[in-house]
Amino acid sequence: MRTSRTAGGGYSGTPLAKKIGVKAGQRVRLVHRPEGWEIPGLPEGCAVSGGDGSDGGEGGDGGEGSAGVDVAVVFHRSLGELVAEAPALVGGLDDHAMLWIAWPRKAAGHRSDITENALREIFLPLGVVDVKVAALGEDWSGLKFVRRKELRTT
């Protein structure tokens, strides 16, 4: 898979940080982050964790996943591995946090058994709803999930 040093906004021209909804001062976690994948143009005061294997980054097991952050971007190439991790990802999601699931873009010539519909089948029964799909750079597609309003406690 091709790896760029940064993940641009794709063909839309929208900066990636804005596209995925990162705001100033937010906490962002990158889980199973591919080498070299970054979010360029992060707003002031953002804290980014993950990516080194110690807390759910590349090669990690998901670590803390979505717990305690405003935006979690979770990368997977295999549906089987994602299915195993999904309940913990949703369980750790704060009421107003965003969970992006990223998978290799077929439009860029990559192979994966992950599809938007498969993600919905896995995640919707767990109490979240998908609200946006986007290209997360040249090599990754992403589907954004948030906790259903009726299931939020705050």
TrEMBL record:
Superkingdom, taxonomy of origin: Bacteria
UniProt region (Disordered), positions on chain: 41-64
Biased composition (Gly residues): 48-64
Protein name: DUF3052 domain-containing protein
